[in-house]
Amino acid sequence: MRPVGLEDVLGRERYGVERDAIRRRVIEHKRARRVALGDRLTILFEDRATVWYQTQEMLWVEHITDLDAIRAELAVYNQLLPGPRELSTTLLIEIEDQARIREELERLIGIDEHLELLAGGARVAGVFEPGRQRADKLSAVQYVRFPLSAAAVAALGEGAPIVLRTTHPSYAAETTLPEPVRAALALDLTDAAAADRALRRVRDGV
Asked: pTM surpassing 0.90?
């Protein structure tokens, strides 16, 4: 998937004017890329549009206008994009009871060894970004990649049921990807221009 480039970034003035409309389009775009896994895990499948939006929001919130600083932010967020024959996700651990956040996160230590995707008989273990989990601590935001076999790619494209599953001893859950999510991921893997079109729809509304 092509990195988000400097030419894709909107200037601060235009982004400020269109920010509310862009946010609504991003929310709609994410509907076909977000999956709940049990009652505490949410997984967002990243693409150019989601990465572009995160970058634009950071530039807006931090008042970043220097070109070198913008390039640096792009370099950071582009790392979230999937590579060839790969799905890239942001995993959010969502705990509503603020008083129990630490306790609940500690219960999920080791989740990085217990997340997998099942596609057409193929089992794909999630590969977690290093440094966001330790033996005694876990970040509430994780970045997870699923390197796909040819069989898994074919299953996505053929409409086979795709299952996300965690087998963690303290948090066993699974969900079948809704059809809009499966279709969006299949398009990511088979149509090189799909992510470019999605970015244009989110950015420009066309």
From this structure: yes
